[in-house]
Amino acid sequence: MRLGTKSCAECRRRKVRCVFPPNSSVCHGCELHQTPCRAQQPRPRDRDTNLQTIPQSQSHAQLAADNAALRRRVVELEGLVGSICDALEPAGDSPASGAASISAAPPDSADKSVSAGDAPLINLFRDALLIRDGEGELYDDPEDPSMLYLMKESLSSFRPPIPDPETLRLVLEESHKFWTIWPTFFFAPDQSLTMQKTSIDDAEAYFNQVLNFGRGVEFCSAMLFLTLCIQQLPRNWKHIIISPSISRQVLIDAYIRFVSVLLAVEGEESILVVQCYLLLHKILINMGRPQRAWVAIRHALSAGTLVGLDRLDSGANIQRKMLWTQTWMVERQLCILLGFPSAVTTRGTKDDLTQVLSPSQRIYRRLCIIMGSVIERNQNPAKASYATTVQLDQDMEDLKNSFPPEWTGQYGPDATTDSIYSQEAVYIFFYSTLKHIHLPYMLKAKGDRRYEHSRLSAMEACRGIIKSYLRLRGSTKTEVIQCELMDFLTFSSAIALILGILSGAGESSPSALTGYAEEWQLVERLIGELRKTNSLLECTVAKQSAEVLETLVAASYGTYTVQDDFVLVVPYFGRLRISQGNKQDTSLPANTIEFSSNDFLNSTFSDFDFQMDLSQDWCNIVDTGVYDWNQMFNSTTMGLL
């Protein structure tokens, strides 16, 4: 027992304030919970405080009393959970036991900040826990540590089912080769050991220990990493994760909901909270939900700022530097896509990690700094001059010259999943940034030839994105990597490439379009790769992308024959409308293609499904109809490619 410690053993275990009433040998907390109030006993120090064993000095009478108290506590919690389920479920419903733990999971709070004081579910717990003090008054102080502890303990009752040890081992083995391309997973605060550098045996032991606890930031971190593993499993994986009646996506959604509520309620100031939100962001990115991923990464920024990660000195440990670097770089990447302002200042990007970053990571870091300048330009379009774009273009050229000479795009048999993905991901983000630099002026190039350089540069960037994507998906080692946002980035680049072709053709004649035969072949290869990706991964974004590109290519060649107009909103780009022309009169256009977009910032939509994001049906999105830029192109019948 530490010198000066006055808390009883039970209050110390529960980490709550221990208060003894006057002339009483039982503290206030133990009296309320009807548990034995014992002084702390000296014991050996043990790192794992969650798995402490019962002291050998306890008598059989004490053990019996503890067991009786635990049984009463279990009965109390069972009654509490039953009352909450009755309140949440309509009268008369009796969901199957296999799905009850998932359907009763707390509502999704990943898209909003929820505090322990005002969360509806927590209020429900507080109302259900009608604990009274010795004088009969309701003991319901929301700031009281013991009350918060009861709420957190009760939340663990809603934990979704986790795989049994045998299935967990199979999940880890199947996903192990992808761990290195995910956010760095640290086992504990201020330690350098990571999941990426440990063995499957050690990882299995860690998950079996932590996942059985049911609450805490460490549990949240472990469950999110497990979610990534399950998400990356093959589409036709022959093993059952939990139950045949629970689909993989339903399980993933349940994990996300539960962890989101836990993180909101726990509210700890810990660097592992930053890690949790980085993992959550990666899960949402893979699902094609960039807006929810942006919300998660803003939570990571807030948590990191609270523990001082944005102002680290040169002596800070590698874990803190790595977590902050990953956080602000991801935030820049999402802001440039979504058209949002960045919350990271220049000071926040001055981390010193040059010695520990790989070549691809160093390039990506420099690229994210340039992204910050592009975001700042886009957020102030009235003050933006073309000279700023020229300077950004020069910065990108200088960065490209620093690429390692061995990056040729050719991979030998010894190439790993990590090496292929790291290289091609850098290329995709590089060319995507270059596209965002020139796209606003590419849209103006048809009416003002001073911006022809931007049109050509944007088209070159789009070609680079598509070629990198084809190399990535063309390798057997990386073709099954789950990332619907990457599929969408490549699709939107193909849209911009076709727009550049049409706007630079000058006239809608076969000779003008056939001058871009290489580009059309590239688009056709992309359509095939997107369809293959959908068949391998059941990817909604890849499926919709292939269908839209097929329709757009047909309309560009005048072979779109559907009677009704084809209208859809391309998220984070603009509107596309395709109309069939007059087939009786060959002198009139065969098809009409209309693009609408904004110069610098993305449009907002009145009927945009925030939860589904890129996975929703793009034809059902209702836009505002107000755009900075509209252009119509006519095509004549040109035959097949």
UniProtKB/TrEMBL annotation:
Keywords tagged on the record: Nucleus, Transcription, Transcription regulation
Region of interest: Disordered: 95-114
Name of the protein in its database record: Zn(2)-C6 fungal-type domain-containing protein
Domain Zn(2)-C6 fungal-type: 7-37
Gene3D superfamilies: Zn(2)-C6 fungal-type DNA-binding domain
Nucleus is among the record's keywords: yes
Coiled-coil positions: none
Superkingdom of origin organism: Eukaryota
Lineage: Eukaryota, Fungi, Dikarya, Ascomycota, Pezizomycotina
UniProt signal peptide: none
Gene Ontology molecular function: DNA-binding transcription factor activity, RNA polymerase II-specific; zinc ion binding
SUPFAM superfamilies referenced in this protein's UniProt entry, alphabetically: Zn2/Cys6 DNA-binding domain (SSF57701)
